[in-house]
């Protein structure tokens, strides 16, 4: 009987902790809202790049997108590479691909 009572107390404590955590998370609404991305001037194009690296297989993928000041898609590219040393190298390849695309 004592074992069952202890289990019930543990479950009630977990429920209390979850409820308290939820209430504390809801109170953080006074945080500063994110400004978002700024549009470039009319004569400037924006290049966004990204890379993904898999440490197990030493492979990576890169992507690049070019948009104008209105956010209209102009061009894009993606590439798969193998035998990459680390995530920093993957980002370097992504940057290079973005510059070549531009």
TrEMBL record:
Statement: the UniProt record of this protein carries the keyword Signal: yes
Protein name: Os02g0587700 protein
A single GO molecular function term of this UniProt record: nucleic acid binding
Signal peptide, first to last residue: 1-17
Lineage, opening ranks: Eukaryota, Viridiplantae, Streptophyta, Embryophyta, Tracheophyta
InterPro entries per UniProt: RNase_H-like_EbsB-rel (IPR052929), RNaseH_domain (IPR002156)
Superkingdom of this protein's organism: Eukaryota
Source organism of the structure: Oryza sativa subsp. japonica
Residue ranges occupied by any RNase H type-1 domain in the UniProt entry: 57-102
Keywords assigned by UniProt, alphabetized: Signal
């Amino acid at each position: 009987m004592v074992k069952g009572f202890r289990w019930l107390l543990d479950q009630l404590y977990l429920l209390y902790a979850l409820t308290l955590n939820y209430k504390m998370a809801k109170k953080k609404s006074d945080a500063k809202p994110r400004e978002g991305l700024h549009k470039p001037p009319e004569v400037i194009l924006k290049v966004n790049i990204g890379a993904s690296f898999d440490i197990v297989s030493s492979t990576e993928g890169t992507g690049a997108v070019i948009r104008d000041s209105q956010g209209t898609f102009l061009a894009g590219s993606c590439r798969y590479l193998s035998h990459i040393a680390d995530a920093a190298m993957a980002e370097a390849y992504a940057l290079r691909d973005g510059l070549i695309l531009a």
